[in-house]
From TrEMBL:
Pfam families: ABC_tran
Signal peptide coordinates: none
InterPro entries (UniProt xref): AAA+_ATPase, ABC_transporter-like_ATP-bd, ABC_transporter-like_CS, ABC_transpr_FbpC, ABC_transpr_MalK/UgpC-like, Mo/tungstate-bd_C_term_dom, NA-bd_OB-fold, P-loop_NTPase
One term of GO molecular function: ATP binding
Keywords from the UniProt entry: ATP-binding, Cell membrane, Membrane, Nucleotide-binding, Transport
Bilayer-spanning residue ranges: none
SMART domains associated with the record: AAA
Keyword field contains ATP-binding: yes
Keyword ATP-binding attached: yes
Protein's recorded name: ABC transporter ATP-binding protein
Residues in ABC transporter domain copies: 3-233
């Protein structure tokens, strides 16, 4: 079942935590709500799940207007970061719990527990108590409990935050597999752009309670609509330099860029670490640090009091303290408006 938010506004007192959010999530897709802390991701999710009530706007599940309904009326699955399992119950009893509440037939409910336990691969753990499981297994039990009643919609709020890095990567792949296997429509909240990039059909990037961009992972990386999106997506963060434009040209040290918009006098140029190259004419930088990442090396370069990140091949040898002349590869720089920070063109 698809989800549609129309002009959603959620207030706490006078404060608009969600400011006019309109969004459509197609049936069977996994969409991430991504953004920095306080950007309104959880509030959006809590409002969709009926825990918070919107000040204005509408929420639709399929064609059904569910605005203002209570969580119990919605039949959705919820998984939270700290959605604690009942510690005194076994895994089996934990997964059974919501089905008992829904007065499922006992035999059917037992069968369903086995079914979902298999989907999340904890079928051997059913008689254990949560404390006997690893963090990753516990989170799988939470997911099993959330999907047991066969919800059309699954909402996950930072479900992996309590896990260590390796487990986080494994578990996010598991969530994606389970989501595809069950065909459930899922909203996945995270502040981790890499996590969002790796599992989403679409990313909704939020800031200050408003949507900045809705795009596929590759598109949001390649075509950010503004400087905020460009800086939030990708690691290391995109490099930025403020430039003055004269008749479509700008000069930085020995580098002249000449295909800039003629109607602009200043702008911010953005370029990613992998899109810098060594040049004879370019920015005269000093190598501050060389980090060996394995496949590549990450250089931190200093130029006129600012630092830039550059990714180079692991075979590229340079020492800290050396001078390096670099330039953004042609066509790989983003021009942002100096005032509005909106994307203008690539150059
Ligand atoms: N119950 C609440 N009462 C008052 N303010 C809240 C409440 N919940 C969230 N907020 C505020 O709303 C904004 C969005 O919060 P939240 O949705 O939790 O952000 P996120 O999940 O993106 O970190 C924040 O400024 C937060 O302080
Ligand atoms: Mg949150």
């Amino acid at each position: 079942m698809g989800i549609r938010l129309e002009n959603l506004v959620v207030k706490f007192g006078d404060f608009k935590a969600i400011n006019d959010v309109t969004l459509q999530i197609p049936k069977g897709k996994l969409v991430s709500l991504l953004g920095p802390s306080g950007s309104g991701k959880s509030t959006t999710l809590f409002t969709i799940s009926g825990i918070h009530k919107p000040h204005s706007g509408k929420i639709f599940f399929g064609d059904r207007d569910v605005t203002g309904l209570e969580p119990e009326q919605l039949g959705i699955g919820l998984v939270f970061q700290n959605y604690a399992l009942y510690p005194h119950m076994t895994v089996r009893e934990n997964i059974l719990f919501p089905l008992r509440n829904l007065k499922w037939d006992k035999v059917k409910a037992e069968e369903r527990v086995l079914e979902v336990a298999k989907i999340v691969k904890i079928q051997d753990q059913l008689d254990k108590k949560p404390a006997q499981l690893s963090g990753g297994q516990q989170q799988r039990v939470a997911i099993a409990r959330a999907i047991a009643k066969n919800p059309d919609i699954l909402l996950l709020d930072e479900p992996l935050s309590n896990l260590d890095t390796k487990l986080r990567v494994e578990t996010r792949q598991e969530i994606r597999r389970i989501q595809k296997e069950t065909g459930v429509t899922a909203i996945f909240v995270t502040h981790d752009q890499e996590e969002a990039m790796s599992i989403s059909d679409e990313i909704v990037l939020m800031k200050d309670g408003a949507i900045q961009q809705i795009s596929s992972p590759s598109d949001i990386y390649m075509n950010p609509v503004n400087k905020f999106v460009a800086s939030f997506i990708g690691s290391p963060e995109m490099n930025f330099i403020d430039i003055a434009i004269n008749d479509g040209k700008c000069t930085i040290d020995s580098l002249t860029i000449d295909n800039l918009p003629k109607n602009m006098t200043k702008a911010t140029l953005g370029f990613r670490a992998e899109d810098l190259e060594v040049a004879t004419e370019g920015l005269k930088t000093k190598v501050m640090t060389v980090e060996i990442l394995g496949r590549e090396r990450l250089l931190t370069l200093e130029h006129q009091g600012r630092t830039y990140k550059m990714l180079v091949d692991k075979e590229f040898y340079v020492n800290e303290g050396e001078e390096l002349i670099v330039k953004p590869k042609t066509g790989k720089s983003y021009v942002f408006d100096a005032e509005s920070e909106a994307f203008v063109t690539k150059c």
